Amino acid sequence: MTVTLITDSNGVVVGAGAEGTRLTAAGVEAARVPLRELMDDRLLDALLDRSKDTAGGLRLTGAGSMLGELVAAVLERALQGELTAHLGYGKHDLAGHRGL
Known about the structure:
The protein is of the alpha+beta class. It has helices at about 25-30, 35-40, 40-50, 65-85; strands at about 5, 15-20.
């Protein structure tokens, strides 16, 4: 069986289903892939390395922390999607260049 990743209009993976299946909004919510399955160990190791303070301890919150950077990245991505939806074209898209 082939599994297909299901993405929303911004390309964010929201679930997975068997190839050729149709999912309703409720089905997409039920098929939501856990975040851990979307991240490989190399990404998690890199995030852990960035989370260490100078003494080698884990620093998750505060200025320059891994969680702060991660939240900022997610919010920037969400805002980029909102702007794309509002304008009708993506960043660097030729459709938005001088109204062409």
